[in-house]
Design goal:
With 123 residues, the protein is of the alpha+beta class. It is built from 3 helices and 4 strands. The chain has a 4-stranded antiparallel β-sheet, covered by helices on one side.
Length: 123
């Protein structure tokens, strides 16, 4: 199945975002999945203050990852993201129904690159 992960990491160091994206990507690859794309959106204000892990956050560092994996791997990623103390929030979206005909409709991820954003090969 094709999934899209939108993650919000506590702002501060870009290295933390890279670490989290790398750990999720390596989990996907170790279990036979494929990472289709990673995009760094940068730091933005949150729509409302969010309290998580006993801290209140007003800003977050956003990143997006599109990947193919089994349902079991997807559940492992979700549970790991919930336990990660540097994560503020993560949203997962399943794209398509898993059939090749419908997967081809999505095509290449169309993400806008922000100035100073990390490239796919940097992660």
């Amino acid at each position: 199945m094709l999934y899209e992960l939108i993650g919000i990491v506590r702002p501060g160091k870009v290295a933390e975002v890279k670490e989290i994206a790398t750990s999720v990507g390596s989990l996907i690859l170790r279990n036979g999945g494929v990472v289709r794309g990673i995009s760094n959106w940068g730091v933005f204000s949150l729509p409302r203050p969010i309290s998580v892990h006993q801290m209140k956050h007003t800003h977050g560092h956003y990143f997006v990852m599109r990947y193919d994996s089994s349902t079991k791997v997807h559940e492992d990623i979700r549970s790991n993201m919930r336990l990660e103390p540097r994560m503020i929030r993560a949203t997962h979206v399943r794209l398509g129904d898993g059939r090749l005909e419908s997967m081809a409709k999505f095509g290449k991820p169309d993400w806008k690159e922000a100035a100073g954003s990390m490239k796919v090969n940097e992660v």
